Amino acid sequence: MAHKKKTTSSKSGSVKPSSEQQTTETTPDLFIEKGPVRPYIVTEPPKELTASRTITTMKEKLMLLALIVFTASIRLPRLSQPNSVVFDEVHFGKFASYYIKGEFFMDVHPPLAKMLYAGVAALAGFKGDFLFPEIGALYPKDVPYVVMRTFSAALGSCTVILLYLTLRASGVRSWIAFVCGLCFAIENSYVTISRYILLDSPLIFFIAASAYAFKKYETYHSFSIGSLKTLIATGLCLGMAASSKWVGLFTIAWIGLLCIWRLWFMVGDLSKSVKSVFMIAIMKLVCLLGIPTILYLLFFQVHFQSLRFEGDGSSFLSSEFRSALIGNTIPQNMVYDVGVGSMVTLRHTGTMGGYLHSHQHNYPVGSEQQQITLYPHLDFNNEWIIESNNAPGVTFKSFHNLSDGTVIKLLHPGTQCRLHSHDHKAPVSENSDWQKEVSCYGYPGFTGDGNDDWIIEIDKSKSVPGEAQERIIAINTKFRLKHALSGCYLFSHETKLPEWGFQQQEVTCAHSGKAYLTLWYIEGSENPLLPEDTKRISYKAPSFLQKFIESHQKMWHINSNLVEPHYFESLPTSWPLLSRGISYWGDDTHHKTVYLLGNAIVWWSVSAFIVVFAIVVLYELISWQVGKSILQDSNVVNFHVQVIHYLLGFAIHFAPSFLMKRQMFLHHYLPAYYFGVLALGHALDITCTHVLKRKKTFAYIFLGVFFCASYYFFNNHTAIIYGDEWTKEACKSSRWVSTWDYNCDIFLDKYEDYATLELETEETPLRTMPYPTLSSESSPVIEINKNVVELEAEKVERQKPSDAPPVPGKETYDDIMKQPGAKIFKDQYGNSIDPDVAKQWLQQEGGSILRVEKKTVKTKLPKN
Asked: Which domains occur in the chain, in start order?
């Protein structure tokens, strides 16, 4: 790095500091040697640098101990409150339960942080019986949620210590780093996220550990033992960060750019051989890319091995993947050959929609014929009989297979209708002229017409090589169905039908569109014309690499489709201004709330410093261009280098937010904000040691005022951090910005009024939130064990019941309709259904109420 200050010259022409300066300063001078043609920078740090940036004195050890005690007093108290599920604990606590029980689930994040919570819970005796059903659900006594929160808080506390150590490793004086650590310990947003079972605390801990390890690495001489240890530690921390959330990949990119920066100067360092530079580059490549990659793959291997049973979320995966899960319902031993007369199920390959499906419900628009949809679950309404287009309904005496170009009809045996298309607009995609309606048309005895004819086109590039490319083979052959009269292809996409279509996936006939959305294959297959000992086929158990690739495709797909509006979402442009926060939890029975909000003093200081630093650098560049001397002091040079490093980290973690089209929330800013706090630490250091170097008293006063202001803000907002008692007046006066939308009306007028509240017991009914408190991640959650499918990716709003939920099966349709707001019915798959239809189903044998919510009645329906 470039550093310069008052120096003494050596005979060799290099610029070196005096021995006194070397032992008392944490910022070394720049070593410049004379080369045969040009002077060059010596890139190796002086041996004294590591010692000067390491905690060795008793005074600093006591200072660090004081920081640990102070941090613990802020981060660890009152973790038992609230005693109910908070914000995204509804997801990550539930995932811990699934790990313990070994039931497969689907999430948009890598597994490490979730596995850590599961491990902590399992060690505390948790059996996974509580599924964290919704925000506000009371924790049973046997759920070790306090232990799980303590783990999160401990990591958050350690992050404060890592910030101190990182600032010291990059040249900040100990007493200034101490004040920065104190301010970070009381940063409201980090205090809040580290109190709950969320992924943010482990993620930021691993990012902070990566930053510290790499900054420590920069103080060591190349090829030393300390250098190798810290480089390996950096790789390990990077691997764990990336394995907790994909945000960790940005940290890898940041350190990668810093390595390229340093290697660039090493190439010009004539004191280093080409071989040594090459070896350093290889070491960095192995440690900083190889180790994280190995860890990332290893954690996914543990993830797959831990989740061995069919469970919530497995329906989002392919049948191949699910076939390896214990207890799966995927068909096995299907008839190998498919021909005329075969009863088959057709699965769509391009989406997670599932099987070609029809049922006794008609479109209310277009032709008003019977609906065709994609349905994700096994059902007899997914079955189709393949007929010859020339002899529909005729039973052949011998088996006729299906080759490329064969024209067929598809009969739906449950309704005696055939797959049909015609010149009607698609039911939902009606504005797309290239899509036409697909229906199921006909009646018993009707042999169909030309609009029922479909031409098989085998996609050889997607089919298994060999005979599956010549004729239809179950599972192995991928094909398209071309409508014989119009030339369009049987097509599906992720567009959902409205409530009249039970929110199942739309199927159309497309004249254009993406080719992979027109691809199908046969899963289930039976044919009475084949002998009993005919060749059969099953899904092959996928390899680890196949599971890894598929799971990432689904993770990316689900994550990119979390685009529905959210009450507390915010735009990245508003984050540096701290325009608003996020409501995490609220209880109108006890009149308390939890709201994520940053510490405005620290937060706005970071944002202001970034702007000021940009202006200063611009001024310095202009000054340099006109011939003025700049950066003549080693402290100033180190300040510039380190701040640029950290602001590069800020930018790399912040900029991608502008490219994401999914829901975004304030907590997505926190990894970038951490690097901003590190940069602010250097700003405070240069202010006190350079700007105010002749006025040390003023420097101490400046730091003291900054900390006191930060602590005042923290202390003034503790009620919304810890879920404490507060008053309406105090709450309203704490709103420095009108857009801080935490609900002050939830609090009582006086503190004395809280003493009169009746203590809530576990039997107390859950209360409806006075304003929305919604989970942010919107991960797909499928409750198969309860026969309820809740697709949060579709934003099925889950509100708390205003009264105690009914006993399953003991409330009638009329009883339900009398409840205020209970007007929406959903079946066990999360599909909206007409109330009259629900009434008929509930009156059948086997129909029962599963759940009643403020706006939703979910029912378990008998088989149709």
From this structure: 8-50 (no CATH), 51-303+576-716 (no CATH), 334-538 (2.80.10.50), 781-860 (no CATH)
